[in-house]
Amino acid sequence: MSEAASTRTPVALLPSLSPLLREWLPRQRWFAGKGHPVTGFALVAAVELLPVDSVGPGLLHLLLRVRQPGQALGLRTTAGHPPSALCEAAAGGDCYQLLLGVRGAVPPYLAPALIGRVAEGPLAGRTVYEGLHDPRLAGLLLERLRTPGRFGPLRFERAAPVPGGLRARVLDAEQSNSSLVYGNSLILKIFRRVYPGINPDLELPLALARAGCGRVPAPIAWFESDTPEPCTLGVLQPFLRGSQDGWRLALKALADGDDFIGEAQALGRATAEVHTALAAALPTVSLSGSQTRHLATAMNERLDAALRAVPALLPYVRGLRAAFDAIAGATFDGDGRAQRIHGDLHLGQTLHTPDGGWSVIDFEGEPARPLDERRRVQPPVRDIAGILRSFDYAARSYRPWNPAWAARCRAAYCEGYADASGSDPRAEAELLRAYETDKAVYEVVYEARHRPDWLPVPMSAIQRLAGPAG
Predict the structure, then answer these.
(1) What count of other Cβ atoms lies within 10 Å of the Cβ of residue 432?
(2) Residue where one domain finishes, among candidates 204, 238, 272
(3) Based on the domain organization, do 195 and 116 belong to the same domain?
(4) Where a domain ends, among 238, 273, 300?
(5) How far is residue 221's CA from residue 333's CA, in Å, rounded to a whole number?
(6) Does any domain span residue 24?
């Protein structure tokens, strides 16, 4: 089946793959629909990056809509415009990016990547597997990124030269996406669930690189699809070899009985530098009363849903609502602005590099939220609240619990942020408290559903945040 044929036979291709994908997809860590049966598929786009009818392995790139029970069938317009084609696809199921290897038979080293043998259709008799685990196919992706241009519906771009001949390995730690590390010098993040529009994990690091901010690895190359409309599929950046993420570093400090004040203060400065650069590179707005009312309403709605899911929150509901209602209609002078932010910042999204500095990574935002929501301007204290909650989690995940350690880290982080930005986030106490409370409510629901043994961690924060402000 040639590249040209791949556009002629999608109707036959998908039914032949469906039985295999229906079993394989729900087992993948990045699949967001776990716990719900897959009821159908629709092919959004298909292209052969390497022909699948040759003697060697082929590489089939798919954008695939996955249908599951309970997904919304209705569509909302945005600013009076009709929903986009990919949004229409999303209304009938999430759209996923798949890179499938195709061989007559897989060698033993690829056995863990096996999807299955195709029984009928254009790939009948061939074996299909997760292509990223095949070094040859992973190397082909790097070669495509080295040479900008189009390949069917795919478009490859680069901002700097890309070295070749680097052996690839899959990074096992990834959750909502997949990543390939090339020769310990480059990392390619491949977005699994895709949405129309530019992904913030490309948009924001590009803006920061153009602004001269060295706290974020600059994109070197990326690839996109324009069928049925533009969407970001993958980003290649420097791999910060020898770095340690902030979460593991904090846990090590706790285990060794060390404080984390210097590191926390430096991380606060790094966060402020990123926020300052984003505010200079992209539009900002002043927080209006209508915007803060909208924030408070959304937070209260999330609390309502959480109360239904976790009745243990009920004794604290009055204090929690008070935290949200305190910002409803409020306006903020001076630094009360909304701008582009990270959107999902916590210690695990930071890297402490071998030279002792901090880098911030993974600007995708919360993957479960719609892309247009993740790209909205928001108050910078939302990011700060995420880090403050992360210090609390670290302290309370170690035995014996050490809330005093978290309090010192929180103070040091805010001091570092103030030193670099000229604005102490603690001066926006009501807004910061509201975002911390909203985050803690989310954490309670998550832990109740997935890790009940961890529920005391966010519940201790709920008790603190529901008390009198100040």
Answers:
(1) 20
(2) 238
(3) yes
(4) 238
(5) 40
(6) yes
Beta-sheet strands, E only, within 300-451: 337-338, 350-352, 358-360
| Tally of CB atoms within 10 A around 147 | 12
Domain identity same for 225 and 169: yes
Rounded CA separation 206/373 (Å): 19
What is the tally of structural domains in the chain? 2
Residues 404 and 374 in one domain: yes
Q: Are residues 11 and 56 in the same domain?
A: yes
* Furthest C-alpha separation in the chain: 71
Q: Which amino acid is at 430?
A: E
Spatial distance between the Cα atoms of 3 and 30, rounded to a whole number of angstroms: 28
Task: Give the whole-angstrom CA distance, residue 208 versus residue 205.
Answer: 5
Evaluate whether 51 touches 3 at the Cβ level (below 8 Å).
yes
Query: Burial, 37: exposed, middle or buried (Cβ in 10 Å; 0-12, 13-18, 19+)?
Result: exposed
Three-state secondary structure call for residue 369:
coil
Q: Which residues contact 124 (CB under 8 A, 6 or more apart)?
A: 16, 118
Q: Cβ contacts of residue 115 below 8 Å, gap of 6+? A: 20, 21, 24, 100, 128, 129, 130
Peptide bond into 228 cis (omega under 30): yes
Please report whether residue 382 resides in a domain.
Answer: yes
Range of the domain at 330: 244-465
Q: CATH code at 397?
A: 3.90.1200.10
Same domain, 32 and 171: yes
Same domain, 229 and 141: yes
- Three-state DSSP at 215 gives coil
Distances (CA, A) of 469 to 296, 406, 439: 16, 19, 17
Residues 38 and 94 sit within 8 Å (Cβ to Cβ): no
Residue 370 within a domain: yes
- Is the same domain home to 348 and 385? yes
Q: Among the residues of 191-338, which ranges form H helices? A: 200-210, 246-256, 261-281, 289-309, 317-325
Query: Digits of tens for pLDDT over the chain (470 positions)?
Result: 333 334 435 668 999 999 999 999 999 999 988 888 999 999 999 999 999 876 779 999 999 999 998 654 333 333 333 333 344 444 468 999 999 999 999 999 999 999 999 999 999 999 999 999 999 999 999 999 999 999 999 999 999 999 999 999 999 876 789 999 999 999 999 999 999 999 999 999 999 999 999 999 999 999 999 877 899 999 999 999 999 999 999 999 999 999 999 999 999 999 999 999 999 999 999 988 899 999 999 999 999 999 999 999 999 999 999 999 999 988 776 567 899 999 999 999 999 999 999 999 999 998 878 888 899 999 999 999 999 999 999 998 888 888 899 999 999 999 999 999 999 999 999 999 999 999 999 999 999 988 999 999 999 999 999 987 65
Considering the domain architecture, whether residues 212 and 322 belong to the same structural domain is answered as: no
